[in-house]
Amino acid sequence: xxxxxxxxxxxxxxxxxxxLLERGAAVRANSRTPEKLSLPEQVQVFGADLDDPTxxxxxxxxxxxxxxxxxxxxxxxxxxxxxxxxxxxIGEKPVLTGPARLTLREQVTTIGEVIGRRVSVIEQTEAESxxxxxxxxxxxxxxxxxxxxxxxxxxxxxxSDE
Length: 162
What we know:
With 162 residues, the chain is an alpha/beta fold. 35% of the residues lie in helices and 10% in strands. The protein has helices at 11-22, 57-60, 80-85, 104-115, 126-134, 139-152, and strands at residues 3-6, 27-31, 44-47, 65-68. The chain has a 4-stranded parallel β-sheet with strand order 3-2-1-4. The longest helix is centred in the C-terminal third of the chain and has 14 residues, at 139-152. The mean pLDDT is 86.
């Protein structure tokens, strides 16, 4: 089954397409502007836009795996081609973390710095959190989220180099 590479027009997406082809994988490439792609003829090209998920229907038909690149400051740290063409990760649960533990307040401060405005943490009771989440998620999800948050209090998360 083919692998769909979302945003194959970018440097990383293009490198993933090339790496997949080198390994003999069937490849589908996506771009908002597919007419600008210059790829080997064996690559199926699809026009689709992440702002319109329904536009991916044809590109996703019979697809086994999808490469969706999140814009990183250091793309060379991405290791997605082997994961898409080998069986080594099937059934595995790699723990993906950043290089350091950050408190919630540190995470929120970092988000504020990145988006260029001050963001603050507002503490809530479980009942307040549950009421807010219930507006956006089914009750069983809300219960699980609250349970996960409760169990995370005081825990020391693992740091991984995976």
